[in-house]
Each structure stands twice: as C-alpha cells, then as structure tokens.
Design a protein that fits this description.
3-stranded antiparallel β-sheet; 36% helix; binds N,N,N-trimethyl-histidine
Length: 345
Amino acid sequence: MIDEDDRTAARFEPSDADLGPDAEPRDEETREQGRGEPSDAFAAALIAGLSMPAKSIPCRFFYDATGSALFERITELPEYYPTRIETEILADHADELAALARPGTALIEFGSGSSTKTELLLARMTDLSAYVPIDISGAALREAKARIGERFSDLPVLPVEGDFSRPLHLPAQIEECARLGFFPGSTIGNLRQGEAIALLANMRRILGEGARLIIGVDLKKDVRQLLAAYDDPAGATAEFNLNLLARANRELGANFDLKQFAHSATYDVRHGRIDMHLVSRRPQTVTVCGRRFGFLEGERIHTEHSHKYDIEGFHTLAGEAGWRPQAVWVDPERLFSVHVLVAGR
Ligand code: AVJ
C-alpha cells in the first residue's frame, strides 16, 4: 500500500529548528516570530519551494498569528466539520477516555494549540500525574501552561520545547508514569504516507513500549462534502491559503499581488487527499528577497495535503509504525474518527 513517491519522503516537515531539550536555545527575538520559526526559515523554505519546477510552500508556514486566527475562523464554519465533530466524539466517550488515564498516567500532547479538546480530556482525567505539551513554539507552550495551570491548578504542567518529528526526551519527572499520547485535529493528514509512518514511529519511540495514543483522523467521505469544507462560500479558507503570500509580503518584503492568485482545493482520489493550491490568475513575476519568480497563467503553488483515511487504511498505516489498534470511535455520520492505539506489535 506504500507508494514509491511517498516512501522517499522520509520525514515530517523537516525544520531548521531542531530544538530538543538539550539543544541551544535561540535568542528570544528570532524564536517568537510566527509559530516559533524565524523568518529566515520561512525565507529559505519559500525560495526553495518557488525554485522547483512544481512550486510549493510547506503548510507549516500557514500558522503565524494571522494564519492561526484564520484557522480558528475556519473551525467555526458550518462546512468545516473536523474540529466540531472530533470534539463531539471526545465528549461522547468521556468515560472511556477517563479509563485510559489510570492513576500515575502522564498525558503527552503533540502540539499545544488545541485548547478546547485538551481541556475536555483534562477535565475527565482526574487522576493524571502530569500534562506534557510538546511544541516547537515556546510562546505557545507558555500560553498553554498559563491557561491549563489556571483551570487545573493541582496538575503539574511540564512543557517540552522541541520538534516531535525528531528524537526527543520526555521530562525525568514522568519516568515512572504510564504514557498516554494525544494528537488531535487530523494533523497527521498533512503528511504523505511515508512521512506519516515516520512520525507515528517517532511518537512510539518518544512514548515507549506499552504507551497509548489517542489520535484524531479525518475520514474519507462524499467528495462534495470534502470540497465544501476546504473551499467555503464565506472565503475563510481562501484567505487562510492566501495568507502565505500576505505573510511573505509582511515578513520578507515580497511583492505578491494577492488579487492575482486564486485559492483552489481539489480532491485526489488515488491518494485520498485534498490538495490546496494558489493559482496564478495571469502571467506575472514576483520578487522575494531579491529573487524573481515567474508564473504562467494558471500555474499553481501547492500549499497543503490533507489526507483522508478509512478505518482499515489507518490501522494499516499505524501498524507499519508499530502501533496496534485498541479502540476507534466515529460520529453517527461517520465523518471523523478518533483512534486509541497501543505501542507494540
Ligand atoms: C489543521 C491540518 C487538520 O487539513 O483540515 C483547514 C488545516 N486547511 N482548512 C485540515 C486546514 C484548510 C487542517 N488541519
């Protein structure tokens, strides 16, 4: 089931910022730009991506302050079901979630941006020993710690600043704890097959044998419904997509004319994924950091993959990374799935 072209892509969104707990901290100023990545990383990725015959921009650059706010708006759209349905599934399985967190368990969240869902879990998991958010952004971690610390004052919050697509150590304080991972939002869908397997395998190494992982995965469904979720009539997704170019103008002094690029979302049946592009409306030239990039009319910049799985397909993928299925929950309309996996073959 593994595509050749997917196999070669071994890693999840390589970033210049390998901030394991032992890495040298970068200075505060560069670290605070966007989602913890300095502008020069954006500049380098943008120039590399626009220099390829098939142009692309890595989707992790969506999430500067503006992009994060736009994504929040997307999650409130009637057409964008994933956030709403995943939250419902978690709420509907509160007792089973609580049972996953026996006394002495540490909850380890991959990313720290999903406040409502995290708080839903923490409210149910009353016997947790610690909450460990892992994120590349120190600012996001400080916010999460303040917010969680306020509402759950008895719960030790032990943030880890680092890139969870790389080897990473958990805090010594949770050495004796059972580990329960949490990776909501179908973020796994951003990765190609090979990258997704590599990330899941890395999470297994981080959490250790016997650990459990709660992971949200968007399901395959009617193509019209998928397309509506990624090309909403209110134009929020278009604005989110175009923010990549707006960000380049703001941060790098690029001169993209936002009116001359169109948002596009298509469904690729073979790979089971939504592809987002920005499409040049006419022949044009854009300057980024002193470099000129030509666009033909209709030429596209690829900006995001969002893979959709059926339950069996996701089980196969997780199995390749050394995870066994323990449980899977879906909503009555079968729009979204939440899996519980166990580390070990
Ligand atoms: C945050 C990656 C899950 O793929 O649905 C929403 C991002 N892109 N609308 C997704 C997104 C366009 C989202 N994920």
